[in-house]
């Protein structure tokens, strides 16, 4: 169960990383619409690349059919936005109006990804919490068992001391009788 808890915790962390990188890419895409500068164009493409890289790691961790289906929806959302941001970066010029750019490339583009990402994050977070709860229960049970074992060991030590003391007394009495 500890292995599963670590697995789902790592999956939840990666899902958050994918979401963060994705949101940064979209944010830079919006900056491109407003500023139309090379710096934001480069950053939008860079963050989208980092999003896809983190997503590949996340996708490889999906085990159940349910996880795989949710990951596919996230991937579809990423692919859709990736295409729009790349097209925006390649075609936007200083003459374009920010509202026109936003409407053509950015308006409502994150909805599908946001829904899929939230569902996936909720799913793996709940799995992580459930498996962590099981690990804690096992640890608590282990503590109870170790407490019992400690008491048993102390009882055995006491019994050993009692027997040794009795044996020592008998040996002294026997040695006294020999003299």
Walk me through the structure.
By secondary structure, this protein is mostly helical. 91% of the residues lie in helices and 0% in strands. It contains five helices and no strands. Helix 1 (2-35) runs antiparallel to helix 2 (38-61). The longest helix has 68 residues, at 111-178. The radius of gyration is 32 Å and the shape is rod-shaped. The model has no long low-confidence stretch (mean pLDDT 86).
Features:
mainly alpha; 5 helices; rod-shaped
Provide a quick synopsis of the model.
By secondary structure, the chain is mostly helical.
Structural class: mainly alpha
Spatial separation of the terminal alpha carbons: 67 Å
The number of E-state strands comes to 0
Instruction: Sketch the major β-sheet.
Output: none
Rg (CA only):
32 Å
Helix content: over 70%
Residue fraction in strands? under 5%
What's the tally of helices? 5
Oligomeric composition of the shown chains:
single chain
Mean pLDDT, all residues: 86
Helix-strand topology string? HHHHH
Q: Indicate the low-confidence ranges by residue numbers.
A: none
Any idea what the shape is? rod-shaped
SSE diagram, text form:
Elements (H helix, E strand, L loop, with lengths): L1 H34 L2 H24 L3 H27 L6 H9 L4 H68 L1
Helix pairs in contact: 1-2, 1-3, 1-4, 1-5, 2-3, 3-4, 3-5
